[in-house]
Design a protein that fits this description.
Largest sheet: 7 strands, mixed
CATH architecture of the largest domain: 3-Layer(aba) Sandwich
Distance between the termini: 99 Å
CATH topology of the largest domain: Rossmann fold
CATH superfamily of the largest domain: Response regulator
Strand content: 15-25%
Strand order of the largest sheet: 7-6-8-9-10-11-12
Radius of gyration: 25 Å
Helix content: 40-55%
């Protein structure tokens, strides 16, 4: 080898060695970059109660994962997007995608928000992990990177008539086929889809529906509806309502001294602490077909029991209140995304997250609410099931199904208003 070539070769090697620390440093810095997740929830406005509760649950899960070391050595950075309307949800999804570089999203508390936010995420080549929006057509849009861990409207509405037939009817000493049932709902996609699922399930059980009534959730007077209910005198009312109309109906039924023998809500307005804060002891005895509040600890894996204890401890320390349905749901959605999707995916791009989601096979009982994780080809979790809670002592307790049950139902038939 000539001297000139020898020196050139040495310069190349030395140059590469000198560059190596910079390359290594770059790789370390890349590995330590946070995984960015955008949470699109209604944080202000009429649905902010649910939005903030859901977000707080997701945040608790992400904080726990980060405190345990993150995902493959990387911390998760959670961004807020205030989807207080469909248009705001569109704007916030695009803002987080373009300005913050977010390529993973979760949400959404309401179907109106979830439908458009997930659409924008798909358009941006991002991944969307839905937990709370229940519209039946959410998973019917042939999107490739949108998955719903939570329930559909059908999954949320069906437990109400099942519980009425299996538990309430025997307590009332009435054959299920002889129950008089009224189904009422606010008229958004949420109310229409969930109430239809309840009606369809009731009819499969041979239960006749005596009244089907839709109304605007913005109504400020539901006394005409109360008069219709009084006229029918149903054994069971199944109601799909948001928080303001749920409070209004209970107050006006009390003012008009009317009450059914049993009242079953379907999540939303009947599965939030805000209901008890508004109507006090009048909440006692009300049921709600719901996302699970909790599970019987004997039905949970050891890991889920440890997660449950840690979540409750952390949430109570931070917010000075026990977590309820919406908060627990948010935690389950967040922990599943982090532990069972992000941690298993080859990378955090949408294609790899899709592949990890389709491969996910998490047994029932692996999350604090008793759920597991297994998606169909449309992106709907097949191991998410609804449950029934009842308000007892102004607190929600799980009463159905057996895997979630922690107490027996009480106050059937419902006592007079002054006896609750």
């Amino acid at each position: 080898m000539s001297k000139s070539k020898h020196y050139a070769s040495r310069r190349t090697v030395l140059g590469l060695l000198a560059a190596a620390p910079a390359v290594l440093s770059s790789r370390v810095a890349f590995a330590e970059e946070p995984i960015k997740i955008g949470g699109i929830f209604p944080l202000t406005g009429g649905n902010s109660v649910f939005g903030n509760q859901n977000f707080q649950g997701v945040e608790a899960a992400i904080d726990l994962v980060n405190d345990r070391g993150g995902i493959k050595g990387r911390k998760i950075q959670l961004f807020k997007g205030d989807g207080n309307s469909p248009q705001a949800a569109i704007s916030e999804t695009n803002r987080l995608a373009s300005r913050e570089g977010v390529r993973i999203f979760t949400g959404s508390s309401t179907s109106a928000v979830g439908m458009v936010a997930s659409q924008e995420a798909e358009r941006n080549g991002a991944f969307y992990w839905e937990g709370m929006a229940v519209a039946n057509n959410y998973t019917e849009r042939d999107f490739k990177s949108v998955f719903r861990m939570g329930l559909s409207a059908a999954g949320l509405g069906q437990p109400a008539p099942l519980y009425a037939a299996e538990v309430i009817a025997p307590m009332l000493k009435i054959e299920p086929k002889n129950l008089k049932v009224a189904v009422i709902a606010e008229d958004s996609a949420f109310g229409v889809d969930v109430s239809k699922a309840a009606i369809d399930q009731a009819e499969k059980l041979g239960i006749k529906i005596g009244l089907r009534e839709l109304y605007s959730a913005k109504s400020t007077d539901l006394s005409p509806l109360v008069l219709k209910l009084r006229s029918l005198d149903p054994d069971v009312i199944i109601a799909t309502q948001f928080i303001n109309d749920a409070i209004l109906l209970q107050r006006q039924m009390k003012e008009m001294n009317y009450g059914p023998r049993a009242f079953v809500g379907t999540s939303a307005g009947h599965s939030t602490l805000s209901l008890a804060e508004a109507i006090g002891k009048d909440v006692n005895g009300i049921f709600s077909s719901s996302f699970p509040l909790e599970a019987n600890v004997n039905s949970l894996s050891a890991e889920a029991r440890a997660d449950r204890d840690e979540f409750i401890k952390r949430y109570e320390a931070k917010y000075k209140v026990a977590p309820a349905v919406q908060e627990s749901l948010g935690f389950v959605v967040g922990i599943a995304l982090a532990r069972d999707i992000l941690a298993k995916a080859a990378s955090d791009n949408a294609a790899d997250l899709r592949e990890a989601s389709l491969k996910a096979d998490v047994p029932v009982g692996s999350y604090i609410n008793g759920w597991g994780l297994k998606f169909d080809d449309k992106g709907q979790n097949q191991r998410a099931v609804g449950s029934v809670i009842q308000w007892q002592g102004e607190k929600m307790v799980s009463v159905y199904p057996q895997a979630n049950k922690v107490r027996d139902a009480i106050m059937v038939p419902l006592p007079a208003w002054n006896a609750r």
